[in-house]
Amino acid sequence: MATVTQQDPGRGHPRRWWALGALVASMLALGFDLTILNVALPTMAAQLGATTGELQWIVDSYVVVFAALMLPAGLLGDRFGRRRMLVTGLGVFLAGSLAGALVDTPELVIAARSLMGLGAALVIPLGLSVLPSMFGEEERGKAVAAVTASMAAGMPLGPLIGGLLLDHYWWGSIFLINIPMAAIGVAACLLLLPESRDPSSPRVDALSTTSSALGLGALVFGIIEAPERGWGSGPVLGSFAVSAVLLTTLVARERRAVRPMLDLRLLGHRAFLFNSLAATLGTFVFSGLLFMLPTYLQEVGGSDAFGTGLRLLPMMGGLMVSARLSTLLVRRTGPRPVVTTGLVVLCFAALLGSRTEPGSGYGFTALWLTIAGLGFGLAMVPAMDAALGGIPAEEAGSGSGLLMTLRQVGGAIGIALLGSLVAGAYDDRLDTAGLPQGAADAARDSLSGAHAVAEQLGLPALARSADAAYVDGMSTVLVVCGIAALVTAALTALLLPNPRAAAPAGRPGRPGGPGATPAGAVSDADVARLEADDRQ
């Protein structure tokens, strides 16, 4: 059994840079996994016969498990050993990736993705919390920057790598790419990482953990199943009722806890509340767009998988540019006008995108995607930084955990709700008159199914109807996103505090300021957790 070690603050572990390289590779794989799957959704719909609802579950199962288990997983690492739980998480992620590459039904892919979400829940909170035991104070900033940058770099690279793999191999190859990187991470953790723990951390509350996982799962189930079963059907209403009971139980229990996993009292800080709202809305829209766009670009626009990855780059590029720009703007004006402006820009982009028609060229799509990316970066990055800056320093660890959880829940609901709106509109507007029942059902299941039926039966009118129905659904979703962004912009403009003294960009533990992780912003939360570990 490894000896528990703590390095002197001014010294580092002798093999620290090798270990850092392995952590960077592992985080890069997790960054890929946040976006690489999206370009594969049309291929999986065609080759696995997956319906739109099943595609939503394939994406959301990962996010739901991750959001529900991230906090207790981090606490397990604090109490039982961060290296041990990091190795466990990488092993679980590796096993889930291998299973995802080998299975051949949507249900089994969903199960594999859930397993990957469990592994990610262990890896992401602990990937940064092991750094204080390896690096001295002078080098720790560089180490944090390397790990956070690897996660951020994985997101824009994910669609490109996924598209390249799909153009040459079968859909399971997008999971296989995780295996060597995770295996390297496991070996390096076992051989190079020192063990560290914090026995004084709160205990894992099994009831709260269960309530959060099942409550969020029931909510997502109801939203995804509503288009097919009906919003007023028994199973859908029952799932919403179960979710309400479980989440209410979670809130009540956490409010009474002396050391809660989710410190909901932080929502009493106005700066934290409204900045978290802006960041969560951004994640809601971003996740929903990444679910819808690959199908539109491939099935309606005629792109291959790699071309789809390339065509998503304007949004990623706009986000990364504005994330850097937002740091300078916040120093001049404070966070409120920057966050509000970002939300207004996002509203404009969504409403512009809602004008898309089946015959619209990619130039128009690239225009509104670029504007959307600019809005995301201006709104989300300063909002996350200001949320953590708006609470006392001793609550940074709890605040980062709550902010991260809220954003992941927003992403899960975004995929579920916006995907369901697209599916409902598509089903309502698709013209299947005169088709045999089996062919009509296949056409309604997904856009790729409709194209397959149209090709088999020689019905180009069905393909045109399906394209128009999907674009109509996407336009409806973009209008909803625009309205939500505008309402949130009004709330932030009226109610968000605006401290003019921005935090220094180079403060310990958060190199580069709020622009350090523009794409996923997962690591902003983890860096705050690292700060809390430093204080302990």
UniProtKB/TrEMBL annotation:
InterPro entries cross-referenced by the UniProt entry: EmrB-like (IPR004638), MFS (IPR011701), MFS_dom (IPR020846), MFS_trans_sf (IPR036259)
User: Which membrane topology term applies here?
Assistant: Multi-pass membrane protein
What Gene3D superfamilies has UniProt attached to this entry?
MFS general substrate transporter like domains, Multidrug resistance protein D
Using the UniProt annotation, give all residue ranges assigned to the region (Disordered): 501-536
Q: Where in the cell is it found?
A: Cell membrane
Reading the lineage from the top rank, the first entry is: Bacteria
The chain positions of domain Major facilitator superfamily (MFS) profile read 19-500
Predominant subcellular localization, coarse grouping? membrane
Membrane-crossing residues?
A: 17-37, 57-76, 85-103, 109-131, 143-164, 170-193, 205-224, 230-252, 272-292, 312-330, 337-354, 366-388, 409-426, 477-497
Basic and acidic residues composition bias: residue spans = 526-536
Please list the coiled coil stretches. Answer: none
* Keyword vocabulary terms for this entry: Antibiotic resistance, Cell membrane, Membrane, Transmembrane, Transmembrane helix, Transport
Matching entries from NCBIfam families are given as: efflux_EmrB (TIGR00711)
PANTHER family given for it?
Answer: EXPORT PROTEIN, MAJOR FACILITATOR SUPERFAMILY MULTIDRUG TRANSPORTER MFSC
Q: Know the name of this protein? A: DHA2 family efflux MFS transporter permease subunit
Please name the taxonomic classification of the source: Bacteria, Bacillati, Actinomycetota, Actinomycetes, Kitasatosporales
